[in-house]
Amino acid sequence: KEEELQRVSLYPNPANDKLEITSRLPMDGLSIMDINGRELDRIEVSTKNYTLDVSSLSKGIYFLKIQSREFKSTQKFIKN
Asked: pTM for this structure?
């Protein structure tokens, strides 16, 4: 858990329109999950930095699953 947090950062959190995702290692895919574990969106990426548009999400708590060849991480974020 500790090294997961060091690998990926999300900001701002809570987010209004955009969520910046920064990783020390290249990411391959992102999945947005709601609080009940339903997948709302899946995005293919191949970068260390990504700007996620969250403007269409309702207010609430979400989880971002980040996949790469080297690691998997799940981070919680709040949409305002």
From this structure: 0.88
